[in-house]
Amino acid sequence: MASTSLSVHQEAIRSTVVKKVVMALTGLVLIAFLLMHMFGNLKIFIGQSEYNHYAHWLKGDLLYPILPQGWFIWIFRLVLLTCLVLHIYCMAVLWAASLHGRGARYVRTRRKEQTLSARFMRWLGILVGTLLLLHLLMFTVGWVTTGYTFNAEDPYSMFVGAFSQWWVVLIYAIFVGAVCMHVRHGFWSAFTTLGANVGTGARNVLNALAYFVAALLFVGFILPPVAVLIGMVS
Ligand code: HEM
């Protein structure tokens, strides 16, 4: 009887750890995407034709002729979507288990010692998901447009049209702020789950790196919309 309950407990720990590892790996893939997207957006400073050329290359010619034209973007979207779904699924299962007092909580930090990002991690994730949906409706699908006409052939004009309005920039500042808080704690958490947090030195490096990546993303993402708003890019 004792050995049965022990194996049930071990099973719970194993399944919690597997979900944490899946969350860590998918989260890191999503952070890599964010860095790529942020650097791509900075091309807006070079000019309309360069920015549009980059967007067309990404959607049409990347990896061509290794892959048929236009395939890369769909594989890329499939990978991103799979990571996002797995990330959310594992979060939901772990959250439900913690609400019901089940599962193995192998790392616990007292509430008072938690950073703001850590404490509101799940709520930040929900806010990011909602604003991401709005973002895709604006720039990928075109169901929501404000200040521009949807034209996938000319993302530069959509960019400038959208961010010429202060309240769109404000919504994106909240979006990117929430993403960066989520990333700050997520980066730290992911590497801790993967075993990198092995001592005070490693912890300090990890902490510094997490803040650096989050700050880099925030500044890199918010600069182009602000530049449009103040008329530096038009
Ligand atoms: C100020 C911040 C951001 C700006 C100005 C921005 C701008 C854009 C633009 C213009 C596009 C369409 C590009 C095109 O059609 O060629 C796009 C696509 C996209 N963005 Fe953002 N973005 C921002 C932040 C984010 C963030 C934080 C995320 C994720 C959390 C994100 C995820 C995506 C995704 C998934 C796509 C669709 C890519 C595809 O078509 O497959 N973006 N973004």
Structure characterization notes:
The chain is mainly α. It has a single domain, classed as Up-down Bundle (3 helical TM bundles of succinate and fumarate reductases), CATH 1.20.1300.10. 74% of the residues lie in helices and 0% in strands. It is built from 8 helices and no strands. The protein has helices at 2-41, 48-61, 71-99, 116-119, 121-141, 155-162, 166-193, 200-229. Helix 1 (2-41) packs across helix 7 and helix 2 (48-61) crosses helix 3. The radius of gyration is 21 Å and the shape is globular. The mean pLDDT is 90. The structure holds protoporphyrin IX containing FE. Protoporphyrin IX containing FE is lined by residues 34, 37, 41, 55, 73, 77, 128, 132, 135-136, 139-140, 152, 155, 159, 172, 175-176, 179, 221-222, 224-225. Protoporphyrin IX containing FE (HEM) is lined by residues 34, 37, 41, 55, 73, 77, 128, 132, 135-136, 139-140, 152, 155, 159, 172, 175-176, 179, 221-222, 224-225.
